[in-house]
Design goal:
elongated, mainly alpha
């Protein structure tokens, strides 16, 4: 088992989650139980699933958790677009957060490929 805090994939996903929480603090109050909650839950699922996968002995289980983390990252990518199009995010925040999301997805994809081909 690997300590998830030692993984670059987890670190980047955690940084993204913190950035999303900070960016969503200024979202409208009426979205607190709507879009704000949805994007925060999806985003926090990325590092959570990576951590859960690290706790598994079986490589197939590890890959499955990483795939769930990837699914959550795709969900975040969509929510960011929606927030931007609803003028809840300005273009600078949108670009920064999407860039972090894409980086997390790329790292996850490489990690999944690495574990799948051992």
């Amino acid at each position: 088992m690997t300590d998830f805090r030692e993984l670059r994939e987890w670190e980047k996903a955690h940084e993204l989650t913190v950035a999303v929480y900070e960016a969503t603090q200024s979202f409208p109050e009426e979205e607190l139980l709507g879009l704000t909650q949805q994007i925060r839950l999806a985003c926090s699922a990325i590092p959570v699933k990576i951590a859960q996968g690290c706790n598994r002995e079986d490589r197939e289980d590890q890959v499955n958790f990483l795939k769930m983390a990837m699914d959550a990252a795709i969900e975040v990518e969509y929510y960011l677009l929606l927030c931007y199009e609803l003028d809840m995010l300005d273009s600078a925040d949108y670009d920064r957060l999407v860039s972090k999301t894409v980086e997390a997805k790329e790292l996850l994809e490489l990690f999944i490929d690495k574990l799948s081909h051992r």
